[in-house]
Amino acid sequence: MADNPGAVRCECGAAAGPLGVCVDYYHAILSEEQADPVMYRWHAPVVCAYLLQHPYRGHEKYLDGQFRQLQLLLDKGLDALLRAAAHQIARNRHGSRAGYDMEPLAAYEPLPPGGPPRDFRATFSGLPVRDGSFVADGHAAYGQHIEAVVRATVESWLSMES
Ligand SMILES: [Zn+2]
């Protein structure tokens, strides 16, 4: 059965898709969004969701902030997340005290200990790709697919608390 691609599983528990496991999808997204500014608006949620579904590939000290960013997105939308990020960049440029500004994120749940969760309802390797593109059905559809992955990521982590 080792030569059956359907049997291949990602470290996050997801079944491989036509492009491979999640890291293959992640790299394909990072490559495609470089040439597509509208698609690139979803860059931060893509990175945060990927690292929270595959936390051994990220830096543990950033995971809590990334988890809160995803909650901000679900709560207030992409524009609010982009505004918070722009505020952060401006703040760093003005040389204010070092460190991540947690204020816009302080209201959200901290990352529960004991992760990662065993599986997620929506995964990167489950994202639809048509003609080699993630936005073949339009940017609105792409945004909805990423948001579903984000929602599944937050839900699985929060369900670890009990
Ligand atoms: Zn995965």
TrEMBL record:
Pfam families: DUF5946
Protein name (record): DUF5946 family protein
